[in-house]
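Lecture 7 notes: from sequence to structure.
We start with the chain below.
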Amino acid sequence: MLLFCGRRLLLRIEGRSMQPALQPGDRVLVRRLGSNPILRVGSVLVTWHPQRTNLRLIKRLNRLDSTGLWLLGDNPAESTDSRQLGPVATSLLIGEVVGRLPSRGSEQGR
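Predicted structure tokens for the same chain:
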């Protein structure tokens, strides 16, 4: 985490689970969500990891049902997500990615 700006966070992407949309080293602007957020399938969400404290997940919302958030990485070969973890409790939701600052080395950053 690089910066707090009120209701927004700036986080650095680690790992390749969201490639090609997000590259390692990219920074994303995250809007914190309130207690009754309006969630859209396909949006990229940030949650606390359900089994590892102090670790965040950044994944795409695939489904929302009574069991929780079904989150998938865009790169299944590199992602730990709801395929292994099952649904993620909505109480672990932190926010939604609303912007991306590409790293200097990424293709999109040139």
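Points to note: The mean pLDDT is 90. The helical segments are 82-85.
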